[in-house]
Each structure stands twice: as structure tokens, then as C-alpha cells.
Amino acid sequence: MGLGSIRIRVITSRDEILGMGAEEKAVHLAFRPSDRDLFSLVKKCPGIELLQLPASSYEGLSKFIKMYLASSGIHLVKGDVSGHWHDLNNYFVIPAYVLEKIKELEVQGRTEEEIICEITNIRKISPDMILHLLHSSFLASGPEWPRINKI
């Protein structure tokens, strides 16, 4: 059984948070969120597991909000959704072949740096996201995959 793709919901404004479904597990905020926006997001999507922010927004987060997200079980990563057109699709997709390649390189004993270099040559995914995927249980085979939106 192969790995499924990961769908990351891309949110471009705080107004979109109100219309989100509770089933979202992975979200990219393409705007600079306030603490209030992040609290709203966690309330609206109680099962969120992964939150990606552009580097500038990530660096601007307070220590308190980073601790709050971590204690809520939300993994915070830095990065962009390069090449994504929000007007065409609300989701940025990390295809199954990328996940399979990460797992293959890990099995080969490649270093994190080598894996990041090779994956970023295949697809524009942030190094932090690649590290998250590498160290998450998502790449584990079997029925115990995490609940991140897979297609």
C-alpha cells in the first residue's frame, strides 16, 4: 500500500478562518496572523495537527503563542506554498511520489541535508516541511498513519 498525498489548506485572509471546516488537519496561513487569528483557527479546527507560516510571520510569533500551539499538539513549520494559485484551488498538495521519495532516501541512509536538497530539486517544499514529514509518523507504513488530510 502506497502513501497518500497530503492536502494543506491555504488561507489567504483572516475572514476565511470563519468559513473553515472542523476537519482540516494541515493549514498554511498566507497572511500575518494575530494571536486572536490563531486562537480562532484552533477553535474552528480542533483537530489541526500542522500549521505552516511564511518565515516573516513565523519569526513574528510570540513565545506564548508558540508554546500554546505546541501544547495544543500543533506542529509549527516555516515555509511557503510556492507555485500555488489560491484562486484555482484552496489546497496545496504534496503528492504521494514526494512522500515515497522521502521515505526511500531515509531507508537509503541519506542525511537530512541530502534529503532536503534532493526533495527541493523535485518539488518546491520548504526545508522545515520536509523535516517535519521526515520525522513525523506520516511516513510510517501500516494502518497507524496520522490523520492529516490524505487524498
TrEMBL record:
<dbReference type="InterPro" id="IPR012546">
    <property type="entry name" value="DUF1699"/>
</dbReference>
<dbReference type="Pfam" id="PF08004">
    <property type="entry name" value="DUF1699"/>
</dbReference>
<protein>
    <submittedName>
        <fullName>DUF1699 family protein</fullName>
    </submittedName>
</protein>
